[in-house]
Amino acid sequence: MIANNLRQILELAPQFKKDEADNPAMEKRELLLAALRTEIEAHLVQGNLDPNLLQVRAGGRQSLYSPVPWVRIFDPEHAPTAQTGFYIVLLFAADGSAVYLSLNQGTSEFRSNKMRPILDDDLLLNRTAIARAAIDEWVTRVTTAGTVEIDLRGETAPVGPESKRRARNYELANIYAYRYPVAELPTDDSFRADLEELLVLLWALENADLTTPTAFVSQLPKRQASPNTSRPSMRQGRQLNEKIRRLIEKTAEDRAVAHYETNGWTAERVGQFKLGYDLKCTKQDVELHVEVKGTSGKGIDVTLTPNEVSHCRTCPHMALVVVRQIEIGDDETVKETGVMKIFEPWSIDDSRLIPSEYSYRVPIPDHAAP
């Protein structure tokens, strides 16, 4: 049922026309989107998720019809509209080539007396990077098998610049997504598994983002103990425990040491001293400081401490090693040692540095409350 609805919606894409109020193809598309919404609601119910915690809406109509229709799954307390918060959304490419199941976020702002697409690429990219960093401790298939880049083909759509910008913003705001080409649409079971996995990440994002938990965030973990219900299925994603985190870090560091020693360097591990780098490598009279980052994900973004940033700014010989897609099995052993990327020499590019956390010194009141 899911694949059939997806396919029909994609096949109608070439019949989209700008400013055409009476378009039988688009009217049919609206009916298909409504049917798809009902199917997704049924999947949520089958997963024992309370429909009051998560809701589903179909849309993609701006004034008249939009070239990029969508179906959104969202926490109504956190993301009541498509302009705010985090949510999961099916986004259909304007040319009908593919549909994406995307963990996405609000992409509009209030400007000139109405909600309009955000025009600052860096603002959206920074928000996306911060979101990926917030869920970096979750082991999920989408971080390796999914994509961080989506192409909705908005530039080729017969619409004005604001509609093109709206499609572009969806692309920039994508955190992680599954791409389903029109020739490889998912079965109901595989779609349900992918959706459950993204629901885990949505829960994790909201849990990290909210000062006051919504019902979605606060109620689902309490239901985990029941064998017949679930926080979005933990079979699809698990949080890294300290042992796994250390194993990932050690695997990355081992690969970096092996690389430099093979190339004639003497590598000394110094991370425990909190110097702002992990390896001190020497060759003849040259000393190279190496920062090492390991991740089970794609390594699109890595977290740097203030000390690491400060040291990189002042060190004359610095390198960055990123080892991504390190796979740890359920038995907590290394299954895959990942893919290594080396940046040497490395210096901090301020345009890529995103401030995601601040330390605030609380003022001392004149009289403390009892």
Task: Quickly name the level 1 CATH class of the largest domain.
Answer: Alpha Beta
Under the CATH scheme, the architecture of the largest domain is 2-Layer Sandwich
SSE-based structural type: alpha+beta
Which bin fits the share of residues in helices?
25-40%
Indicate the overall shape.
elongated
Count every helix, treating DSSP H or I runs of 4 or more residues as helices.
9
Strand content range: 15-25%
Number of domains: 2
Order of helices and strands: HHEEEEEEHEHHEHHEHEEEHEEEE
Low-confidence stretches: 223-235
Rg over alpha carbons: 23 Å
Largest sheet properties: 5 strands, antiparallel
Structural commentary:
The protein contains nine helices and 16 strands. Helix content is 32%, strand content 22%. The strands form five sheets. It has a five-stranded antiparallel β-sheet. A five-stranded mixed β-sheet has the order 10-11-12-13-16, with helices on one face. A two-stranded antiparallel sheet has the order 5-6. Helix 9 links the parallel strand 12 (286-294) and strand 13. It has helices at residues 2-11, 24-46, 121-134, 142-145, 161-172, 188-209, 215-219, 242-262, 306-314, and strands spanning 55-59, 70-74, 86-92, 98-105, 108-111, 114-117, 138-140, 176-181, 237-239, 266-269, 279-283, 286-294, 318-324, 327-328, 334-336, 339-343. The protein folds into two domains: 2-217, Metal Transport, Frataxin, Chain A (2-Layer Sandwich); 242-352, 3-Layer(aba) Sandwich (Trna Endonuclease, Chain: A, domain 1). With 370 residues, it is α+β, with helices and mostly antiparallel strands.
